[in-house]
Design brief:
690 residues; alpha+beta; eight-stranded antiparallel β-sheet; eight-stranded mixed β-sheet; 12 helices; 38 strands; 17% helix; globular
Amino acid sequence: MAKVNIPTVKKIPKELIKHDDVRIDNYYWLNDKEDKDVLKYLKDENSYYDSLTAHTKDFQEELFLEMKGRIKEDDSSVPYKKNGYWYVTRYEKGKEYPIFSRHKETLDAAEEIMFNGNEMAKGHEYFKIGGISISPDNNLAVFGVDTVSRRQYTLQVKNLVTGEIYADKIEDTTGGAVWANDNKTFFYTKKDSVTLRSDKVYKHTFNTDTKEDVLVFHEKDDTFGVGVYKTKSKKYIVIISYSTLTTEMRTLNADTPGGEFVIFSPRVRGLEYSISHFENCFYVLTNKDQATNFKLMKVSEEKTSHEYWQEFIPHRKEVLLEDVDIFKEYYVLSERENGLNAIKIIRWDNTNSYYLPFNDETYTAYVGTNPDYDTSILRYGYNSMTTPSSVIDFNMDTKEEVVQKEQEVLGGKFSKENYISKRIWATARDGVKVPMSIVYHKDTKIHEDTPVLQYAYGSYGSTIDPYFSSIRLSLLDRGFIFAIAHIRGGEYLGRQWYEDGKLLKKKNTFTDFIDCSKYLIENKYTSKNHLYAMGGSAGGLLMGVVMNMAPELYNGIIASVPFVDVVTTMLDDSIPLTTGEYDEWGNPNDKKYYDYMKDYSPYDNITKQKYPNILVTTGLHDSQVQYFEPAKWVAKLRELKTDSNILIFQINMDAGHGGASGRFESLKEVAQEYAFILDLEGKTPKSQKK
């Protein structure tokens, strides 16, 4: 492939003024994807990317086939039973999309294919089927389809008996729906067509015109979103209004869909809660009364407001209570202590309680799909960085367990005994201990020349648990250490860990990551010439800040769909997600938040300095982080960076925030990322060197 010149893009200065502060944005104009000059620039960047990576194309294909080769193509999920049917999601060899099927009463019964994603995806560059909701009589299914990748789903109804898909379509939804118990009424959530905020709940009656759908709730506070679901007891339809800090729920008896939703407990800023229903009571998981790590409370169906809540499981300073699952004879708590998952099983009559035993130093365990209320079987999942995922059915009465499925790693080369995982602790600059989960091949010698890929996310209280990845083996088998930094901003060490990494403490997220990097270098796990960093979305923001603050620590950085123009985005309330993010990042209309954001915003803090080798990726249709954020960022980096290191920008012109939609197409994107750092590390096959 012929060499392509470094892309250039015109500068059109735009003054952005707030709080008497003037910022000049030379690349603001790139936010119009209908502009032919914008599209030309994006295509130029893709051509430049293709040119600079041409020598790795065969290697990318090799990595892709290697990763694909470990995955069982004709795979299927572990069946679960709900309302008389066993449900299965399966894949066929050579096909990209799932097939959703079911069997009546027994798995030996004839398969009923409800939806074949491979047939439905024909003619679409992107395809995603949303939440499938089956009517209580099992005859009808509501389903959502997104063919653009902006997470705007079109709902339709399918008759599962005749196969007919009814003509009515409901646009701009979140993709899911909830049936009332009458088999003809369902509730769904619509999105604002501009901001994509889910703000309205509608009621649809089957066999009526969708234009007659009834608006049952409109969330007018633009810092909140809404959702709708049904309790496991099947008695209540629940509308949830949620923001980062506050929750408000409304309930309706599912037998009377014509009734009015009633507020469960009015919103109080800072009060979060979720509800589960059992017999004649609700169980409320909440942070009420400064219960930072949450506690469980109980309230009768008659009077549900928070002043009536009674403590059921008290708050514990060292234990984060993440969830509760309700069964007829038991309730199951999902907890996290010192970063590690715990699952506690308790009989309602309090005659027995115990934890499931987990022995690895670092692992991931979670309660799985348990739609059946009247059962003694708990389904849970387990994996670690060295142990493939298992789905396990545990008998809560006898304590016997059956491994229903262990993830197969094909190719004949994998053995978990060949890999080592451990947890290490770095000391942050303020003295706080920050954990990292690391994994590597047992034959990898750890010294200054060992390559390390350090990954983190660090926002929204989202915890990146130490999980198994067959894809990651392509790095580990080539001598890499993979490290997950459990930095503040996630909830790995409890809710306070999150609180200490947001708003006016957000910089802890960034300095934690840098201090973890310094720990790896100082303790000779690697060196500056062999350390790589990767993050996506809010983790892409992390990458942008890190490369401004400590560019000398990294040989290469991968920033996927990065949120990098923080101030401008958070000042634009027409952009999807902005208003709902104020409690995470702060509202820059308030000067103290404006100043704090501006001080770390990657785009605003690019300076004339040397930067690492950089790969940036995005999707043209991204609804979460608009394509123009990384586009502007790359343009400004090209203008100001003083090094000759690689800076490449790859734009998927058909996808959005989640990348390619096909099961294996997404592996090609991972192969691109891995090839980038393996090439920098000199691990590209010799025949493919530049």
